[in-house]
Amino acid sequence: MTIYDYDYTTIEGKKASLADYRGDVMVVVNTATKCGFAGQFEGLEKLFQDYKDKGFTVVGFPSNQFMDQEPGTNNQVAETCKVRWGVTFPLSQKIDVRDDSQDPVFKYLTTEAPFDGVGKGLKAKSFEVMLKAKYGKGYNDNQIKWNFTKFLVNREGTVVKRYESPVTPDEMRKDIEALL
């Protein structure tokens, strides 16, 4: 099974398949426009613009599961992403990315790329403290922990790496370039 086996509904309400990106390197990310990490939309768009002609795409999946940070309608989400951050990469309709209502795309992603901590550095450590307080014993499970968890997928549709929220799109650049 690969990422290409999954479908989604675009933010405009149209049926789509991740197989539409067969042969591309992809970053699949859960997003929220009111999150403290929302500035990453600019970095994701920059990666998309820099590499789209080389067979690269970003697909964003808005979710409202973390502190009500994506409360608007799909139209409001699309408008905010476009106007505030210039987003042109594909977005899905709002979905759930964890727990019993987890979308199949994210069930697949979290199975293929298990949680391995939030990273190093002061930013990651303070984030880790918050997440451990929120999830307790569930902190180490493979569920999505917060908005802007990013998954890098190679041209064959295989998930090769998971990046937690504090990792910026620019910090992913070398890994993306290695797959292009």
List keywords for this structure.
180 residues; alpha+beta; Glutaredoxin; 4-stranded mixed sheet; two-stranded antiparallel sheet; 30% helix
Q: What can you see in these coordinates?
A:
- With 180 residues, this protein is α+β, with helices and mostly antiparallel strands.
- The protein has one domain: 3-Layer(aba) Sandwich (Glutaredoxin), CATH 3.40.30.10.
- Helices cover 30% and strands 16% of the residues.
- The protein is built from five helices and six strands.
- The chain has helices at residues 40-51, 74-85, 104-112, 122-135, 173-179; strands spanning 7-9, 15-17, 25-31, 56-62, 150-153, 159-163.
- It has a four-stranded mixed sheet with strand order 4-3-5-6, with helices on both faces.
- It starts with 6 loop residues before the first strand and ends with a helix.
- The model has no long low-confidence stretch (mean pLDDT 97).
How are the elements arranged and paired?
Layout: E1 7-9, E2 15-17, E3 25-31, H1 40-51, E4 56-62, H2 74-85, H3 104-112, H4 122-135, E5 150-153, E6 159-163, H5 173-179
Parallel strand pairs: 3-4
Antiparallel strand pairs: 1-2, 3-5, 5-6
The description of the largest β-sheet is: 4 strands, mixed
Can you name the CATH architecture? 3-Layer(aba) Sandwich
Share of residues in helices = 25-40%
Strand arrangement within the widest β-sheet reads 4-3-5-6
CATH class: Alpha Beta
The helix-and-strand class reads alpha+beta
The outline comes out as globular
Classify the beta-strand content into a percent band: 15-25%
Look at the structure and give the mean pLDDT.
97
Q: What is the ordering of alpha helices and beta strands? A: EEEHEHHHEEH
Low-confidence stretches: none
CATH fold field value: Glutaredoxin
Number of domains: 1
Task: State the total count of DSSP E strands.
Answer: 6
- Supply the CATH superfamily name: Glutaredoxin
SS summary, helix count? 5
Cα distance, first to last residue? 22 Å
